[in-house]
Amino acid sequence: MNEPAFMNQMPAEAxxxxxxMPSANRLFLELGNPAGIAAAMGFFTEVQKARLMTxxxxxxxxxxxxxxxxxxxxxxxxxxxxxxxxxNAFPSVAAINPAAELIxxxxxxxxxxxxxxxxxxxxxxxxxxxxxxxxxxxxxxQLDARMDGNIATIIEHGSTTAPSKRVMKxxxxxxxxxxxxxxxxxxxxxEIIFTIAEDSGTVSRHPNLKKxxxx
Amino acid sequence: MxxxxxxxxxxxxxxxxxxxxxxxxxxxxxxxxxxxxxxYTCCPDxxxxxxxxxxxxxxxxxxxxxxxxKLDNDLLVLCNGCFETLVEAEEMLRDQATRxxxxxxxxxxxxxxxxxxxxxxxxxxxxxxxxxxxxAQKLTKIMPVKVACHxxxxxxxxxxHPKDRIKILEDLTVATGFEVAAYGRELDCxxxxxxxxxxxxxxxxxxxxxxxxxxxSGAEAITTGCPTCLYxxxxxxxxxxxxxxxxxxxxxxxxxxxxxxxxxSPETMGLELHRSPAKAFATARWGVSQ
Lengths: 215, 290
Known about the structure:
The complex is a heterodimer. Chain A is an alpha/beta fold. Chain A has helices at residues 37-47, 100-111, 135-141, 144-157, 165-173, 191-199, 202-205, 209-213; strands at residues 16-23, 26-31, 51-59, 63-72, 75-84, 89-91, 114-116. In chain A, 33% of the residues lie in helices and 23% in strands. The longest helix of chain A is centred in the last third of the chain and has 14 residues, at 144-157. In chain B, 52% of the residues lie in helices and 10% in strands. Chain B is built from 14 helices and 8 strands. The chains are: A alpha/beta, B alpha/beta.
């Protein structure tokens, strides 16, 4: 799919590192760092006259993904920016597009991320007794170790479940091979899964992975 | 002779080898050949891994599909989650730029995904490729058991209406000689994804109302086509018992019920790894001798 002509006019300060257009009315732009969001939003708001639809935040163990969704003459443009942990502040775009103010507040209060430059520091959504709880953020933190462990187990055993002696005994008792035909048991090179994890950036995002999974 | 490449996923060979054994027995009885997919990996799982690492996940899915392409038959997927993951990967890999990027990673393993493998869910294969009469012909130990069916969410994400999807498992259960117990919460999730974030919430809001409804329906057992749902329906009964629940229903994969009804002995199927009273129930109903 050809990218729209306006891509050539994007300011360099937006630091767009990749673009993909899976269909004629959908465009994803990845920004290299949070600092680029002001220039990108400025371009779409002031030059393209695009409408800010919403902002969404997605938390993973290693980072927050901030997604600014805009409607540019029928093309839904999503600006994807990664905020690496432990950083916890993201530039506000409320001064560029006032519609962002309330949406940033939702993310601020639910995830505890500070939007630097948002004009209202006080809570707008949560009641006083919830003021310091950041309810959505709390749920993901307990997944961190599990996600790292899950990926490490896949790299080591090819499976999310490590084999147990009891299961292997039952398998052989039924006349089945102790090990199922999973990689690395039936795989010429065990290291291939780790190589894929390296190539896809997974290893760099999970600092403990190398130690846990080995190579 | 029908021939399928079998995709077992992780849960089946590592936690429920009885389901793997049943699959091998049932398809052999139905006159179909099963070919192992040597060197496959986790699909990866549609909840944690895909959420955390989309590119890594897509590459592993593509690798599994590329391995299957080399064997040149339909890929028979025994697990709901694996089915959803692989079908979604297939969809994402229709984009040529994405496919080229992922194939560059697979090239180091001497593999290439071209998009020619047909991915099929177990319940679809059993109902589309085998006439009810073919299954009925193999029933040598029909037991009058009232069974509640749990299809599982990942099997519902299809162009078909969810009510039509749940009917497939129900029809298969009837074709295997059982009576289906209607309990009104057939579409409710087993709670597994929610339990990763909050076990207590998942138990309170999802699994307890579902199991209560199953019990009220008069069902004597539960069946599902998904190993993760099976795990969840069993482990939550264990947890609920500690909180005073008296629900103690055996949970079976549909392939296990088929193998039992085809006359295979519960003693040789590895049912002891279930956390529900599946083995005791099967032994009481189907007996120990073959």
